[in-house]
Amino acid sequence: MLNNEITERFKIKHPIIQAPMAGGVTTSELVAEVSNNGGLGMIGAGYMTPIQIRKQIRELKNLISNPFGINLFVPKEIDVTLDNIKVANQLLDRIREKVHLPQKDNNIEIPAFNNMYETFMEQIKVVIEENVPICSFTFGIPPEKVISELKKSDIILMGTATTVREAVENEKAGMDIVIVQGSEAGGHRGSFSNTNNEGLVGSISLIPQVVDNISIPVVAAGGIMDGRGLMAAICLGAKGVQMGTAFLTCMESGAHKVHKDAVINATEEDTVLTRSFSGKLARAITNNFIMSIENNEQLLPDFPVQNKLTQDIRKAAATNSDKEFMSLWSGQSPRLAKQQTVKMLINNIMSQAETIKTNM
Amino acid sequence: MLNNEITERFKIKHPIIQAPMAGGVTTSELVAEVSNNGGLGMIGAGYMTPIQIRKQIRELKNLISNPFGINLFVPKEIDVTLDNIKVANQLLDRIREKVHLPQKDNNIEIPAFNNMYETFMEQIKVVIEENVPICSFTFGIPPEKVISELKKSDIILMGTATTVREAVENEKAGMDIVIVQGSEAGGHRGSFSNTNNEGLVGSISLIPQVVDNISIPVVAAGGIMDGRGLMAAICLGAKGVQMGTAFLTCMESGAHKVHKDAVINATEEDTVLTRSFSGKLARAITNNFIMSIENNEQLLPDFPVQNKLTQDIRKAAATNSDKEFMSLWSGQSPRLAKQQTVKMLINNIMSQAETIKTNM
């Protein structure tokens, strides 16, 4: 069950995908080490320009000959007014004061988001030109035209779903594989439909219900950190796992030292769901930033506008190594996080999985 | 791994515990059928009087010779004022109107809850006198004196936990086994400490983190409905599973037909967490009752006061088979629920588990 259509299709040894965490975590060193050790390394390219994407793909091709993948964010129409931005900036100004940044409320402008679709198409162009073998998507399903172009180039496509309905939509759109994100997952929720109850379903419930309703292979994501999680996902009907937090604290990851330490010292009670950093629901370790916005989340503009507005704060906090104002993304299993190399992590997962299999 | 210290200790064939759902679901027929088919049947006695408890235990002893268990609610001090009750009744009066019940707001009284501890001690006395082999607790850990008395009678004790901290407290208090309830679970949350973030952790995260921090056996609860869930729980380090929703829709369960149908027709998106019915956080299929209280949940008195206040409404709704005003408890896996006999359910779970084991 650990060698299956996923490992065959991806030409990888182990059914382990490193989650494409955006924002500097997926260094070429991290991606290369994952792919070199039998998993699938993924570039988190959601926030990257087409030029940056091409540069990292070429860097990776110099480092490894194994397959790797890339993740892009599917843009959607945004609806934001100057008033929305003013209100959000007023809330954020209280935080700016705490991190010694200049106020913004009298200096409002709507950031340029109208070219998001064009940027996305350029990102797709680079993926095709550079022959990246695997491409995954979050926050939506790309237009038919994009899917058929990628397919013409034999690129394997993975979509993201947080409910059965979203998984079915991914299959219908022609995705080859669907990543099913349980409520345990760290970072942004991949939801893209108007789900009831924000689509927060635990993996032990969500995975089998999805598996029963689609024919394409399922990859389980959310809360999986070791061989126990991998084997559980396989028992539930998934063909592989996508792991974020477990790779985030690895030596090779580009996450800030303060972020890695925060995850390693956290417990399962310390993460919360918040829209404060980006306008989109995400799971992070709670801190001052989240708590100061908490009661006003409904006033924030949507992703990616709020993400843009908080950029100066997050940057300043990172420069000052101030964990109270950084986005400390984490899944619900931080007690299982370790500071170790990717090689050690993957070896530990696979030997634990083998032990479970043997004792079954 | 399916025959382990849990099956040995309980003298049962399969590591499957039927959740002690309170409020009439755990008929003697249900409990007996579970125990007769190799699982552990449990009486949900939280709301029962000592006399009712003794009656059902004797009824069960006439039906089966296999072991069965019982669950009790650990009472805690309640702090409620006439004003709290008045406010809650005003909110509930809008609902009473819809179900054609008389208004209550001018007819307030504090229900008698001061004898809760005495009732609990009488329940314990019956459990000891009737030699019930297994006793589990929710909503707290019983006082030391109660634990040592039950242990003197060789009764196996199970506590309930929703976080690592709560599991550790259960172990320290002398519980033999701990039931670990993931965020997927239907009905009331078993939380009893002031957890951050309401202790809503998905099972795939929670189980291994608990297992790493205690030495007593762990039983996984929440979202488990079939052999896939059982095998996943075992991989995560649990020794058995406790299943509620899966037994609720069985032919032998005492749940209202409307409740069973609601679960069978629901999807994973349809359940929400609510305090509206009882004052304690619980997972149910969303309906008019929940939605009408939603924005005022912070005004409601604690469990069990709110539970008492809503009794007339739930009773009237059940009499009228009106699903919009009943408490339709359900976990997050309703797509996996079936109308079947207990025998079929347990056979299906075990044969699916065997298939997974064989193909591993």
How do the strands and helices of this protein lay out in sequence?
The structure is a homodimer of 360-residue chains.
Chain A: H1 5-10, E1 16-18, H2 28-36, E2 41-44, H3 50-63, E3 68-73, H4 82-98, H5 116-129, E4 134-138, H6 144-152, E5 156-161, H7 164-172, E6 177-181, E7 187-188, H8 203-211, E8 218-221, H9 227-235, E9 240-243, H10 245-248, H11 257-264, E10 271-274, E11 282-285, H12 288-293, H13 305-309, H14 311-319, H15 342-359
Parallel strand pairs in A: 1-9, 2-3, 3-4, 4-5, 5-6, 6-8, 8-9
Antiparallel strand pairs in A: 7-11, 10-11
Helix pairs in contact in A: 2-3, 3-5, 9-15
**What is the count of structural domains of chain A?**
2
Structure summary, number of beta strands of chain A: 11
The total count of helices of chain A amounts to: 15
Basic shape of chain A = globular
Question: How would you name the CATH homologous superfamily of the largest domain in chain A?
Answer: Aldolase class I
CATH architecture assignment name of the largest domain in chain A: Alpha-Beta Barrel
> Based on helices, strands and strand pairing, what is the structural class of chain A?
alpha/beta
In N-to-C order, the SSE pattern of chain A is HEHEHEHHEHEHEEHEHEHHEEHHHH
* Quaternary state of the chains: homodimer
Helix content of chain A: 40-55%
The largest sheet of chain A, given as strand count, sense and whether it forms a barrel, is: 8 strands, parallel
**pLDDT < 50 stretches of chain A:** none
CATH level-1 class of the largest domain in chain A:
Alpha Beta
The end-to-end distance of chain A, rounded to whole angstroms, is 13 Å
The CATH topology of the largest domain in chain A turns out to be: TIM Barrel
| Overall pLDDT score of chain A | 95
Show the largest interface: A-B, 52 and 51 residues
CA radius of gyration of chain A is 20 Å
Strand order in space, largest sheet of chain A: 1-9-8-6-5-4-3-2
Percentage of residues in strands of chain A: 5-15%
Protein name (chains A, B): Nitronate monooxygenase
Keywords (chains A, B): Monooxygenase, Oxidoreductase
